[in-house]
């Protein structure tokens, strides 16, 4: 369990790198899935186009949604978007930054699928074989004698090697459509690469301070949510431990002594005191429910207050400094400064 816990903490601390790795694995999986997938064109005019276009569009949509499902920031984004304003205002730029970050990672696998499909050319051949002009590939007089319906059925069977009789026509038409499909694939890759380049190049042209601010607070929201979950888990563990301890104390003197013996032997008195401290003064179910409700509805404002001890130490420090300055102004010096001067001259 400790190893799994350490692995889970490592993945949480390196979530961005982990998600980039997941997106890369999904992209490779999409390419391997397509290569292992046996493409079978219906070779019917009514279904060729629908089947081929569905093969190009539906799997990328599935990969895109899967990228959203596997990204933990989706729940953070939804929670931040739907929570009441309360004491903390919501910044739309932070929500846009988180959404754009999630979308960019989720688009990797669909882009790979579409590019691999276009490079292969089978689905493109199945979709657009009925739109061919056969006269471009030679003098096939038998096609002119066919009706429009028979001609469409003949063209729809071009992707199917076993159903098409004229192999020369099929090979020529297949090569022609596959060349167009590969050209579309390269244009798609060029367009995606150019878009990514524009995003990378244009981003520094805007105010860098605003971008850093947005990035900082988006990371803060994610870390705050994780820290709140860890604190709640730690409080629940301490609450349950103290509750069970009090339960056994109220059973009987024998059970009480036995429990104290085991606790003193296993955990020690320091652990009992630490469990009491971890409760943070919240020792009732209604109080804990109120804390959780207020965290959602009245999130505290991001303006930290200094501790009273820090304020007192600063007052003491300022008082000492003022006293020192006043001593110098009146022609007197404090003992510490006299010792420093004495030590200084003794060294010389």
Automatic annotation (TrEMBL):
GO terms for biological process: ATP export. It is found in: Membrane. Its main location: membrane. It holds the Pfam family Ca_hom_mod. InterPro entries: CALHM. Belongs to the CALHM family. The chain crosses the membrane at residues 21-37, 49-70, 183-202. It is a multi-pass membrane protein. It comes from Austrofundulus limnaeus. GO terms for cellular component: plasma membrane. Keywords: Ion channel, Ion transport, Membrane, Transmembrane, Transmembrane helix, Transport. GO terms for molecular function: monoatomic cation channel activity. The keyword Transmembrane helix applies. It comes from the Eukaryota. This is Calcium homeostasis modulator protein 1.
């Amino acid at each position: 369990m400790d190893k799994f816990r350490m692995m889970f903490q490592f993945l949480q601390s390196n979530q961005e790198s982990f998600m980039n790795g997941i997106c890369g694995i999904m992209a490779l999986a999409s390419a391997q899935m397509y290569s292992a997938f046996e493409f079978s064109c219906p070779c019917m005019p009514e279904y060729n186009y629908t089947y081929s276009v569905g093969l190009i569009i539906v799997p990328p949509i599935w990969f895109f949604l899967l990228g959203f499902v596997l990204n933990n920031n989706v729940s953070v984004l939804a929670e931040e978007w739907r929570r009441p304003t309360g004491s903390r205002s919501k910044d739309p730029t932070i929500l846009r930054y988180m959404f754009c970050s999630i979308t960019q990672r989720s688009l990797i696998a669909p882009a790979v699928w579409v590019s691999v499909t276009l490079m292969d050319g089978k689905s493109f051949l199945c979709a657009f074989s009925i739109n061919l002009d056969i006269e471009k590939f030679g003098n096939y007089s038998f096609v002119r004698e066919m009706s429009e319906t028979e001609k469409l059925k003949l063209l729809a069977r071009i992707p199917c090697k076993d159903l098409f009789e004229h192999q020369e026509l099929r090979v020529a038409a297949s090569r022609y459509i596959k060349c167009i499909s590969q050209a579309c694939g390269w244009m798609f890759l060029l367009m995606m690469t150019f878009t990514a380049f524009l995003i990378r190049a244009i981003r520094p042209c805007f105010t860098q301070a605003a971008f850093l601010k947005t990035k900082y607070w988006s990371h803060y929201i994610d870390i705050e949510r994780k820290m709140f979950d860890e604190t709640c888990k730690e409080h629940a563990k301490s609450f349950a431990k103290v509750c069970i301890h009090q339960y056994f104390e109220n059973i009987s003197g024998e059970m009480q002594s036995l429990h104290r013996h085991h606790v003193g032997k296993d955990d020690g008195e320091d652990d009992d005191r630490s469990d009491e401290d971890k409760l943070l003064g919240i020792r009732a179910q209604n109080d804990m429910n109120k804390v959780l409700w207020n965290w959602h509805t009245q999130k505290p404002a991001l303006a930290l207050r200094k501790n009273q001890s820090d304020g007192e130490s600063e007052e003491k420090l300022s008082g000492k400094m003022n006293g020192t300055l006043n001593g110098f102004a009146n022609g007197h010096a404090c003992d510490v400064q006299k010792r420093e001067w004495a030590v200084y001259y003794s060294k010389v």
